[in-house]
Structure formats: C-alpha cells, structure tokens
Amino acid sequence: MHTSVVIGPEALPALAELLARPAVSQVFVLVDGNTARQCLPLLEKHLPTSYQLIEIPAGEGYKTLASCDTVWCQLTEQRADRHAVLVNLGGGVVTDLGGFAAALYKRGIRFVQVPTTLLAQVDASVGGKTGVDFQGYKNQLGVFQAPAAVFIEPQFLQTLDPRQLKSGYAEVLKHWLIADAAAFAQHRRLGWLTDNWTPIIRESVALKERIVSQDPLENGPRKLLNFGHTVGHALESYLLTQPGREALHGEAVAAGLVCESWLSVQRGLLSPEELDKIETFVLSVFDKLAFVGLETAAIAEFALQDKKNAGATIQCTLLQGIGNGVFDQPVTLAEIAESLRYYHRL
Ligand SMILES: NC(=O)c1ccc[n+]([C@@H]2O[C@H](COP(=O)([O-])OP(=O)(O)OC[C@H]3O[C@@H](n4cnc5c(N)ncnc54)[C@H](O)[C@@H]3O)[C@@H](O)[C@H]2O)c1
Ligand SMILES: O=C(O)C(=O)C[C@@H](O)[C@H](O)[C@H](O)COP(=O)(O)O
Ligand SMILES: [Zn+2]
Questions:
Q1: How confident is the model at residue 131 (pLDDT cuts 50, 70, 90)?
Q2: What catalytic reaction does the record list (predicted)?
Q3: Most C-beta atoms within 10 A of its C-beta, which of 9, 80, 116, 127?
Q4: Known catalytic residue: 218?
Q5: 171 touches ligand 2 (CB under 6 Å)
Q6: Closest ligand to the CA of 167
Q7: Which residues sit opposite 111 in a β-bridge?
C-alpha cells in the first residue's frame, strides 16, 4: 500500500482538500503546547471552521498512555465516529502518539501527519510506526498503521530551535550511512547547516519509503532504518531516568551511530578509516553525550529490550562499508558496553 506524501507549498492546500471531502465527519487536530502556539497559526487557514483541538504537553516525557487517554477522552466526549480524521500537528512525539491513539480509537480512525520538526519531516511521519513509551522503554507499545496521508511544509522549520534541527539531522545522517555513500561524502564536505532543507527532506523521505515499501512490518530490510538505535535508544532511555541529563532522540541516535560504527569495525565490516570519517563528522555536529564509565553497564542493559532482538540475542544493524547497512548482526551485551566506553573516550 502506498501512502501519499506531499512536500512543499502545495502540502497544506492538499490537506484542506482531503479534509473537505464528504467522507470526513469531524476533524480533530492534535498539538502539543509549542505547536499550538507556533504551528497552528500556519495550519489554521487550511482547516474547516468546525475543527476541534486536542492538546497534550510537549516533550518525550509525555509520549505516554496517559496522553493517549487525553486524546481518547476528548474523541469520546465529542462523539467522534469512525469517519472522523485526526490531524497530528507536531514533531515525532505528536505523530507517533497521535497515530497510535487514532489506530486504537473504535479500532481505528484515519489520521494524517503534519510534521513540524526536521526529525518528523525526514523520518517519524513516514512509514507507519506509531506508539508510546512504556516502563522506561522507547516505543514499547505501538502498532504499524499507515497514515491516510503525510503533508510536509518545510516552512514550519522556521520556528524550530537549532538544537531540535540538529537532532533531526541525525536521522538524515543515518539514512546516508545505511544507503547513500555519495550523499554522506558530499554533506561531510558541505557541513550540516543549510538554508534550504527541502531537497534533503525529499531525498530522506524517498529513501525511507523505498526501504519501508519492501518490508513495512520490519521482518527484514526495514531493520536498516534502526541503525544507531540499539545503542541510541539505550542511551536515550537511560538518560530519561536521570533528571536534567535528558538527551533528544536524535542526539542519542548520533552517539549510537558512532558506537554501532565501532561495532562494525570490530566485526571487520567497516574500515578504521571509515569509522574515523563517521565519528569526525558526527562530533563536528553534535556535542558528546556525557556519562561516566561506571554507567555503561546500566545503559547497555536497555538494549536487552530492543525490538530487533531474537530472544536473549541482541541483534544490531551494522555497516558493511559506508552506505551499506546490514541487519540481524548478533552482538553481546559486553560489546554494547565496550562500544559506549569507546565513545566515552573519544
Ligand atoms: N515513527 C518513527 O518512524 C519515528 C522515527 C524517528 C523518531 N521517532 C520518534 O520521534 C520522537 C522525536 O521527535 P522530535 O524530535 O520531533 O521531538 P518532539 O516531537 O518532542 O519535538 C521537539 C520539540 O520541538 C517542538 N516543536 C515541534 N515543532 C516545532 C516548530 N515548528 N517550531 C517550534 N517548536 C516546535 C515540540 O513542541 C517539542 O518541544 C521520539 O519519540 C522518537 O522516538 C519516531
Ligand atoms: O521507521 C523505522 O523503522 C525506524 O526504525 C526509524 C527510527 O528512526 C525511529 O526512531 C523508530 O521509531 C524506532 O522504532 P523502534 O522500533 O526501534 O522503536
Ligand atoms: Zn529514530
């Protein structure tokens, strides 16, 4: 099944057209505190006058069942029927949570993604992974459910904090490392900042869609899109338990890209020179995440809950050369901890 993704100035008019169809009974718009203030004004003129707003607090800490409860209560109070559409206006937290809440309400109503962060525009809004965090584990509850459509307006990025922009760049880098060596080489020369994100968004979405279309439910090649995430999610989850030390998803993934590239060298899949290129570029863009050597075991433990694992075996996506990901590579807990110690020493 193909999901329509509209990118550019035609995106919001196309959304308006979809919402005006007679088959749509009610329109609900899910926002967080920031997208309510900073993104809704741009969207509002493309919405029907009768839309209802649902707001959750901003941030990863609210990607929870409790926030879904807020969504479900409001849909129920407003007697939303199966022909209602939920418009998710926000970053990956809103698109993941809104997609999940919509998929469960009355066994599923349609939802559309209107991503407003770079991370959500290049990655989270596409591919149908939805979910929430649970018991400290990332996306522990979720379903694969394709949105009715995705509408990407790069203009939303104008109000985005530079730290958030960088966080999204980690997922772009991931895409190049698993599947596009030429783009990695080109952007390593150019540096990460640009005043026109549209071509990068288009290329990332196309690359991700190509992989997802081969394996929508992640039984095989879709695991490539999880490069950097075995260690990245472990770090993100651990730091979420440490008040004041929380890392953004992309920041943790950036560290994970280095650790998992190091693991690729240990397996003889990647050369030390290639690792050097990756870590030099990553560290030129991202500040190093701070943790002490004694914490590496506790961080690594989180990898035991990674969704790619088979039983007790941690299965990582690694690189067989830059631009060529390989999935289902067994690694031990001790190796994950050692990769974190390598990163810590850089
Ligand atoms: N489903 C997937 O395939 C997928 C892929 C990658 C990441 N994710 C998930 O996405 C989440 C991270 O998403 P994120 O980085 O977008 O974080 P986020 O949704 O928390 O957004 C980051 C911050 O930016 C604010 N914001 C959003 N748009 C803004 C704008 N245009 N201007 C000003 N502020 C704005 C938000 O309110 C929030 O405070 C994680 O939970 C991650 O697990 C999912
Ligand atoms: O779309 C995918 O597949 C991904 O793995 C994209 C990741 O960037 C994203 O963070 C995803 O939510 C991770 O999913 P999980 O299955 O590891 O929880
Ligand atoms: Zn990710």
A1: very high
A2: 7-phospho-2-dehydro-3-deoxy-D-arabino-heptonate = 3-dehydroquinate + phosphate
A3: 116
A4: yes
A5: yes
A6: 1
A7: 86
